[in-house]
Design brief:
Strand content of chain A: under 5%
Largest sheet of chain C: 2 strands, antiparallel
Protein name (chain A): NADH-quinone oxidoreductase subunit K
InterPro entries (chain A): CPA3_antiporter_subunitC (IPR050601), NUOK/Mnh_C1-like (IPR039428)
Membrane topology (chain A): Multi-pass membrane protein
Number of domains of chain C: 1
Order of helices and strands of chain C: HHHHHEEH
Distance between the termini of chain A: 72 Å
Chains: A mainly alpha (127), B mainly alpha (765), C mainly alpha (143)
Keywords (chain A): Cell membrane, Membrane, Transmembrane, Transmembrane helix
Subcellular location (chain A): Cell membrane
Helix content of chain A: 55-70%
CATH architecture of one domain in chain A: Orthogonal Bundle
Order of helices and strands of chain A: HHH
Shape of chain A: elongated
Largest sheet of chain A: none
Radius of gyration of chain A: 23 Å
Oligomer: heterotrimer
Number of helices of chain C: 6
CATH topology of one domain in chain A: Helix Hairpins
């Protein structure tokens, strides 16, 4: 079972990373979403996959029988929601950015770092 | 109302203090000087103070004053007192004059610390303090570009050298297993065979040579003449530049017997002396003439420290003393000329004695000593130096250097006194010259008269110099400093230098013109080298900034990811020996199908040309992951993932039309279907690395204590059957509280963005 | 005028309360079966998003009990408040307490855990929903 998780996670992370490296801002956001989903798999699988029974105690019982590890599930669950909030934030940011600059090309966003080419003035001359 | 007004005038015109107010600062060195003289008269040397400071590092507040340190202290406080008085007159009416005197006071204290410290690291701290204060004082007139550059140069050279010194100290301390200078000297005989000793000494050499302006680090000193004259007289002639000589003299008893020590010091000292003498003749600015002759004198001192015979120690002590007694007053004289006649160029200064008789008298007295004429202390010093050299087996270079430097000193003395003050007044000047106030006349006269007094009665300073010499050369017995007017070699040497010096003075202008034309000296000297290196530094900075800060967002991300992947892979490889692949088991059909859906979605995102298709493909990945959760026993995760993915696809799809609309106006991107190999490579490497990490982790032992605790206590303690939910809302409720607070704050933080978006809506098409 | 699918609007009028009810049901059963504040909140977000697609983000926002920032803040405050009783009793903060409220025929079980989970639900609904409505609203104003 760990192999399925490892392979799916690896492929999804690779695809998501490739999308996130794109110059196209929308593809970047979609890449973030794919990476997020894949990393939740990683988080869950890191807690070992010994059982496929949900960690829910049956009615009338006091102690959890052999079941999937509940702890990474709790962590991954909050991670999914927080990751989604982050994703929405990025999407808002991208839409706002496109509206302000009129482009969705990451390379066109150069207000802070104008293209090089102008010679750099040496700071010190002869005394 | 008053506050802003005061602040405004303070902005426009900085406080211009009167001489009377500035004189108050002189109380510090005068008090210290009086205390020092009283202590020297009553308490026998050496004095020691010791207190722990950073015991764990072996850095103690350890001070030890022996003859050598006492001599330096006398110079620092004695010359310091006169410099402070002079500065009060010189800086009166100068904006921020008080600040210069405050910095001088700090410098005074730092120098006292540096020469009395017995701990290498403590010495280093004071040493660097003097460098920093020198930077501030050289750059005192910071509105002038020249001052700023000179200050920067002084700091880079002496501060950079200080770092070498620190490295040398650390090595020495490590070799000797002590930070105490006295213990280091005691341990030195055992260090002779250490293979690292030459390296340690080399580092110390760089530190001392930069500080004491030895070739090839000398060039900062003449440039430091941009400082106010009292600063030049104090830091760059009498005290700070002597600190390097002092340290060499301090370590001389430890390493003086090493051939390396003697050869390096004699060679570097001689070359510096010659180089300084040569450049002295190339200048027309009297202050720079004095600066170059100071370089030559410092070279002579270094050479004397390098001479292995004990008599040289006495020569060092005498010359150190004599130099301060004649060079400082000459600097004061230049300051007076600058002040009274408005120029420092010897072309415009002749016959000044008519206007500035007292300054002329001081110049004549100091010049007497500098030229080494009989009855001056300079003669005594020269006498001792000649004796020391006669004893040592000198290489030809050192011998010739000494003669040439002596001759040039005579010539400089003649220029500073005869040329400037005597002869006909036929030069054109803008201002009418006038005499300086008493504050600027007392210091040069007092110092020059002292030089004469000690020359006539050497016995007055004899005990002090002898003790200083004994600190450098413990094997030196009882010695006396006295002028031996009868010794033939001394008189021969005197005659020789006077003859040469007179010739140089007579042909000064001709020599100057010849040397002026020797522009190769400028093109290939160390100063040019420094300039080129400094420019290269800024070019390298510009080049690597262009290389790394290219402003391409995707490239930044690519670089970061590539580095992270490389580091992670390295860690994996280093632990490769202990790998254990997990067994491939427990794969159910639904699980495999869910995985296949996710993989198919991931691959489809790479090939998707249309953004909507891309979005759907990414949704497929999310649904596949959700299904994986479901079949692996995590229904909570599955539901959450389903909900998230659905909402994301729907919302993003709703935004798409607008992005499409923008896209028409935007410059065309390369078609996304074309795979970029480098990015794909890094992405695949990153994904593979994470997979390998997961598989590696699966093979490691696992601690289930926490999960078992949650499973056992969920129902009895928390009254909940869904353990995941119980963990979220009960066992780890504080975490969850923090997380929802973050989510809520993110919304608040983003709301300005929303508002901007609404504002921008109407304006842009 | 923006043309909208009539059927969708009609369906949405009925679906919205149903979806919210489902989300509440997920919230309440969360302690003993799959569900809980996070999942419930997300289902509520999907309800709001669907409503916004049918009737516009502004009306969807009005259908929420409070404006998104206020609701998110209220959620965090509810979660905070659920820890206070324990703190007042001298127990560690966020130690949950249980009681039952007798209502004649049935006993209603009450606990601070429910308040906490309700806070999570509100916060997720408001914060994530706030983003989604903003995105949907931005699109709708431009067409």
């Amino acid at each position: 079972m760990i192999w399925v998780f490892a392979i799916v996670m690896g492929v999804a992370v690779a695809a998501g990373t490739y999308l996130a490296l794109s110059r196209d801002l929308f593809r970047m956001v979609v890449g973030l979403s794919v990476i997020g989903a894949a990393l939740n798999l990683l988080l869950f699988a890191a807690g070992r996959l010994d059982s496929t029974a949900p960690p829910i105690i049956r009615a009338g019982e006091q102690v959890l029988a052999h079941a999937a590890n509940p702890l990474p599930q709790a962590l991954a669950l909050t991670a999914i929601v927080i990751g989604f909030a982050l994703l929405c934030f990025s999407l808002v940011l991208v839409v706002r950015l496109m509206r302000a600059t009129g482009t969705d090309d990451a390379r066109a966003l150069r207000a802070a770092e104008p293209p090089s080419g102008e010679g750099v003035k040496p700071p010190l001359e002869d005394i | 109302m008053i506050g802003p007004a005061v602040a405004a005038t303070g902005e426009l015109a900085p406080a211009t203090p009167s001489a009377r107010r500035l004189l108050g600062y002189a109380a510090l060195p005068l008090t210290l000087f009086a205390a020092l003289v009283a202590a020297l008269a009553s308490v026998p040397l050496p004095w020691s103070v010791h207190a722990a400071w950073v015991p764990s590092l072996g850095v103690d507040l350890a001070f030890h004053v022996d003859g050598l340190a006492a001599q330096m202290l006398l110079l620092i406080c004695g010359v310091g007192s006169l410099v402070f008085i002079y500065a009060a007159g010189y800086l009166a009416g100068t904006p921020r004059g008080g600040r210069a005197l405050l910095l001088l006071s700090l410098f005074l204290l730092a120098m006292i610390g540096a020469v009395s410290a017995d701990n290498l690291l403590l010495l280093f701290v004071f040493w660097e303090l003097t460098s920093v204060l020198s930077f501030l004082l050289v750059g005192f007139s910071h509105e002038q570009e020249k001052s700023r550059k000179s200050a920067q140069q002084a700091l880079l050279v002496t501060g950079g050298g200080g770092l070498f010194l620190l490295a040398g100290f650390l090595l020495l301390g490590d070799l000797a297993n002590t930070w105490s200078i006295r213990e280091l000297i005691a341990a030195a005989p055992h260090l002779v065979d250490e293979p690292l000793l030459p390296l340690a000494l080399g580092l110390v050499f760089v530190g001392t040579f930069t500080k004491s302006a030895q070739f090839p680090f000398h060039f900062w000193l003449p440039n430091a003449m941009a400082a106010p004259t009292p600063v030049s007289a104090y830091l760059h002639s009498a005290t700070m530049v002597k600190l390097g000589i002092y340290l060499l003299a301090r370590l001389d008893p430890a390493f003086g017997q090493l051939l390396l020590w003697d050869v390096v010091l004699v060679a570097v000292g001689s070359i510096t002396a010659l180089w300084g003498a040569l450049h002295t003749l190339r200048e027309r600015d009297l202050k720079r003439i004095l600066a170059w002759s100071t370089v030559a004198s410092l070279g002579t001192l270094t050479m004397l420290v390098g001479l292995p015979n004990p008599a040289a120690a006495l020569a060092v002590a005498s010359f150190l003393f004599a130099h301060a007694l004649y060079k400082a007053p000459l600097f004061f004289v230049v300051g007076n000329l600058d002040h009274g006649a408005g120029t420092r160029s010897i072309d415009h200064l002749t016959g000044m004695r008519r206007y500035m008789p007292w300054t002329a008298a001081a110049a004549a007295l100091a010049a007497l000593s500098m030229a080494g004429l009989p009855l001056s202390f300079g003669f005594v010093a020269k006498d001792v130096i000649t004796a020391a050299k006669a004893e040592a087996e000198l290489v030809a270079l050192a011998g010739h250097a000494a003669v040439i430097v002596g001759a040039v000193s005579v010539a400089v003395a003649a220029v500073a006194s005869l040329h400037v003050f005597w002869g006909r007044d036929n030069a054109s000047r803008d201002a009418h010259p006038h005499e300086a106030p008493w504050t600027m006349l007392l210091p040069p006269l007092a110092l020059a008269l002292l030089g004469l007094l000690f020359g006539i009665m050497p016995a007055t300073v004899d005990p002090l110099l002898a003790q200083a010499a004994q600190a450098m050369a413990p094997e030196l017995g009882a010695v006396t400093v006295e002028a031996s007017y009868d010794a033939a070699p001394v008189l021969t040497a005197l005659a020789l230098t006077l003859l040469f010096g007179g010739a140089i003075y007579a042909f000064w202008d001709g020599l100057h013109r010849t040397l002026e034309r020797a522009s190769w000296l400028d093109a290939y000297g160390p100063a040019a080298w420094y300039q080129r290196k400094l420019q290269a530094l800024s070019h390298i900075a510009a080049w690597h900034t262009r290389l790394l800060q290219h402003g391409l967002l995707d490239r930044y991300l690519l670089t970061v990811l590539a580095v992270v992947t490389a580091v992670a892979l390295l860690a994996l490889f280093l632990s490769a020996g202990r790998w254990q692949w997990p067994a491939a088991q427990g794969v159910s059909l639904p699980l495999a199908a869910a995985g296949a859906i996710a993989v198919a979605g991931a691959l489809a995102t790479l090939r998707a040309r249309d953004r909507f298709v891309l979005l759907l493909a990414s949704g497929l990945v999310g649904y596949g992951c959700a299904a994986l959760f479901l079949f692996a026993g995590a229904p909570d995760l599955a539901f959450t993932q389903f909900a998230v993915e659905t909402v994301f696809v729907v919302v993003a799809a709703a935004v798409l039309p607008e992005i499409r609309g923008r896209r028409a106006a935007a410059p065309a991107l390369p078609p996304p279907a074309r795979i970029e190999p480098l990015k794909l490579l890094v992405a695949v490497a990153f994904g593979t690395t994470l997979s390998l990490f997961l598989l590696r982790a699966a093979g490691l032992p696992f601690d289930t204590a926490l999960s078992e605790f949650f499973g056992a206590n969920s129902v009895p303690v928390a009254h909940g059957h869904n353990v995941v939910n119980v963990i979220i809302v009960d066992f780890r409720a504080l975490d969850t509280l923090g997380e929802i607070a973050v989510v809520a704050f993110a919304l608040l933080a983003a709301s300005p963005l929303f508002k901007l978006a609404r504002v921008g809506r109407g304006g842009t098409p | 005028m923006t043309p909208r699918a009539l059927m969708f609007e009609v369906a949405m009028r009925a679906l919205y309360p149903l979806l919210l009810a489902a989300s509440l049901w997920l919230l309440l059963r969360g302690h003993n079966a799959p569900g809980g504040g996070f999942v419930g909140g997300l289902v509520a977000v999907s309800a709001s998003a669907a409503y916004a697609i049918a009737f516009g983000a502004r009306r969807a926002r009005l259908r929420m009990p409070l404006g998104p920032p206020a609701l998110a803040a209220a959620g965090v405050l509810m979660a905070l408040a659920s820890g206070l009783p324990a703190a007042l009793l001298g127990l560690p903060f966020l130690t949950h307490l249980w009681t039952t409220l007798p209502l004649g025929v049935v006993d209603l079980p009450l606990s601070t855990v429910m308040l906490f989970d309700l806070g999570v639900y509100c916060c997720v609904w408001a914060a994530v929903g706030g983003y989604c409505l903003e995105l949907l609203g931005a699109q709708e104003h431009n067409t």
